[in-house]
Design a protein that fits this description.
This is MFS transporter. It is found in: Cell membrane. It is a multi-pass membrane protein. Keywords: Cell membrane, Membrane, Transmembrane, Transmembrane helix. One of its GO terms (molecular function) is transmembrane transporter activity. This protein is mainly alpha-helical. It has a single domain, classed as Growth Hormone, Chain: A (Up-down Bundle). The protein has 14 helices and no strands. Helix 4 packs across helix 13 and helix 10 runs parallel beside helix 12. It is globular. The N terminus is likely disordered.
């Protein structure tokens, strides 16, 4: 495994501090990526477009990540980590400011493209950095710590952004996120030690990992998992408003509850993925399907809806670190590139999920996204079990 640390590995305390700072940065980045989910209804009303059309901004972000992520990470992975992460956060601050000022859908789309270019570079290198700081036996837990930023974004960032959007408008929510991005960039600059990047390796040499059919299968599994997740999650705010009849002003609190239970999923995913990554993928994919189906079926019964959303939230958040570590373990010789390929694949799944969910909403109503997502999740669980059996036969 190539070293991503400076000549001397940081002391454990310094490594833990750096990992926590990366988790804070991840919080900002994930909030930027998915804040749009909570703002879709308000944004669509303000710009006089349909929710399904506004939802394609999620698709656009994901497609850009998918297309450019591996190439950009392969080209930039050698850059010193502190400088790279700082640049990413500054780009996020500027793009959020542009989104806040966007006069129309086209400028808003441009404001989404810029951070989409930087996001996979962060996730590929941050995951590798955290894993190497922690050491082989604790890589899953270290990456799960960084991925606490996802749970925190779902718990606080996205819901509070939704509430802020209701209180000060969706533009105000983006202004607040621009300021937060700049503040975290300063925190990283003054608190994180310098960490050397990966040795410079040619793109063709790095791309050789794609010759491994096992790795390719793992990446395709991530596409399926994220398609299932975002078929429903992209339209969760709309589902709560229209299907569960939750008042618009309260949607943010429901999303906060969704993120709160996700903390348990993050913890479980980080612990189980080091042992049996494919079995964990299958188990949480089944839980995801049950949660989405239950949300639709129990939308009018708030007690049952809470339980269904809890299952959905646990599975949804657990699958982030599970998918990332699962793919990184499949390519120990090029973990930064493997991690970024997985992020790109995941965003391909996000794009497909947003498109599938949008088509489902347009054709059968918002309640159908839970059923569509559950069907894809079931297929992903089956694929994970088949891949696990194939891997056992190959290693026998």
């Amino acid at each position: 495994m190539p070293s991503s640390c400076a000549a001397g590995r940081p002391q454990p305390a310094a490594g833990q501090t750096s990992t926590l700072i990366l988790a804070v940065a991840a919080f900002v980045i994930v909030t930027t990526e998915f804040l749009m989910v909570g703002l879709l209804p308000a944004l669509a009303r303000d710009l006089s477009i349909s929710v399904a059309t506004a939802g394609q901004l999620v698709t656009l972000f994901a497609v850009v990540v998918m297309l450019f992520g591996p190439l950009l990470t392969a080209r930039l992975a050698h850059i010193e980590r502190k400088r790279m992460f700082g640049a990413v956060l500054v780009l996020f601050a500027l793009s959020n400011a542009l989104a806040a000022m966007a006069p129309n859908l086209w400028v808003l789309a441009l404001a989404r493209i810029v951070p989409a270019l930087a996001l996979p570079v962060f996730w590929g290198t941050a995951s590798e950095t955290a894993a190497q700081l922690a050491g082989p036996g604790r890589a899953g837990r270290a990456v799960a710590t960084v991925y606490l930023g996802i749970s925190a974004a779902m718990l606080f960032g996205i819901p509070l952004g939704t509430l802020a959007g209701d209180a000060i408008g969706w533009r105000g929510a983006f202004w607040a996120l621009a300021l937060l991005s700049a503040l975290v960039a300063l925190l990283l600059h003054f608190s994180m030690p310098a960490l050397a990047g990966s040795p410079r390796v040619g793109l063709a040499q790095q791309a050789r990992i794609l010759r491994d059919p096992g790795l390719v299968a793992q990446v395709l599994l991530s596409v399926a998992v994220f398609t299932a997740m975002f078929t429903g999650y992209t339209y969760l705010a709309e589902l709560l408003e229209k299907q569960a009849l939750v008042p618009a002003a309260q949607v943010g609190w429901w999303l906060m509850g969704f993120g709160a239970v996700g903390l348990l999923g993050n913890w479980l995913g980080g612990r189980w993925v080091d042992r049996q990554p494919l079995a964990a993928t299958a188990a949480f994919s089944v839980l995801l399907a049950l949660g989405m189906l239950g949300t639709v079926a129990l939308a009018q019964q708030h007690a049952g809806l809470v339980l269904a959303l809890a299952l959905w939230g646990i599975a949804n958040t657990a699958l982030y670190p599970i998918c990332q570590i699962r793919v990184m373990k499949a390519a120990p010789q090029a973990q930064a590139l493997a991690g970024t390929i997985n992020v790109s694949a995941a965003n391909g799944g996000i794009a497909l999920g947003a498109m599938l969910g949008g088509a489902s909403v347009a054709g059968w109503g918002v309640g159908s996204v839970g059923v569509a997502g559950a069907l894809v999740a079931g297929a992903a669980a089956l694929a994970a079990l088949v891949l696990a059996r194939w891997s056992l036969r190959k290693d026998a």
